Amino acid sequence: MTALDPAALLARDALARLDRWEPADDRQAALAAEYRAFVRGDDDSGARADAVRREGGPQHLTASCFVLSPDLDRVLLCFHRKGQFWVQVGGHTEPGDTTLAGSAYREAREESGIADLVPFDPDPELSVDTDAAPCTDAASRIDTVPAAPVDVHRHDLAAAFGTCRTHWDVGFVAFADPDARPVVSDESEDVAWFPVDALPPGTPPDFTARLATVLAEVRHRRRAGLPAR
């Protein structure tokens, strides 16, 4: 049996996670429905690999990770080199990624320099059928990663981002000790912790509202004790 293209696996995983997510916020629920339609495209029975590929077109999914202190009082932000703004860590998926949450977690480790991240809603189970891809390394896909998204955020991009025109970003959450010292990567000019109610000047115009939605989703799921699916 021929193994599926990694991008196809990633697209199927993204769709499965979006399908089983029930956002607390009605606006997020409506946008998540648009995301599911975008990933499916014209094929209601499957998921488009191009939806997650950077080279798949000017619009594609990206994966973010909101790194928070366990008490939700602080957030780790990077000063994005291209965008010239403070924002959560995250970015494009890579060819080796087979889960969207795993992509977000990988980006968080790379861009924050913090290895000891604890995913929110950890889910060691695969969301795709491993029998469909017997040649892939299943063990690497059963990494402990955040299971369900915490938000979706679609935004257009400036010319500095090259051929990318619209990012359909999917946000996840991981926790870290706010005393952990971050390390600046090539993607940014600085990385630092900030109080969630005292964000630095230079965040995108809607970032405060987005972070508030993320925090509300985390609190809602903590109160409800909701499972990952």
Structure summarized in a few sentences:
With 229 residues, the chain is α+β, with helices and mostly antiparallel strands. Helix content is 28%, strand content 23%.
Give structural notes.
The protein is an alpha+beta fold and 229 residues long. Helix content is 28%, strand content 23%. It contains five helices and ten strands; from the N terminus they run ααββββαββαββββα. Strands 1, 2, 3, 4, 5, 8, 9 and 10 form an eight-stranded mixed β-sheet that branches. β2 and β3 form a beta hairpin. α1 (6-20) runs antiparallel to α2 (26-40). The longest helix is centred in the last third of the chain and has 18 residues, at 207-224. The radius of gyration is 17 Å and the shape is globular. Mean pLDDT is 84; it is low at 124-146.
SSE series:
HHEEEEHEEHEEEEH
Question: What oligomeric state do these chains adopt?
Answer: single chain
The helix count comes to 5
The helix fraction, in percent, is 25-40%
Protein traits:
single chain; 229 residues; alpha+beta; 8-stranded mixed sheet; two-stranded antiparallel sheet; 5 helices; 28% helix
Question: What's the layout of helices and strands?
Answer:
Blueprint: H1 6-20, H2 26-40, E1 59-68, E2 74-80, E3 86-87, E4 89-91, H3 100-112, E5 118-119, E6 122-123, H4 138-141, E7 145-146, E8 151-156, E9 166-175, E10 188-195, H5 207-224
Parallel strand pairs: 1-9
Antiparallel strand pairs: 1-2, 1-4, 2-3, 2-10, 5-9, 6-7, 8-9
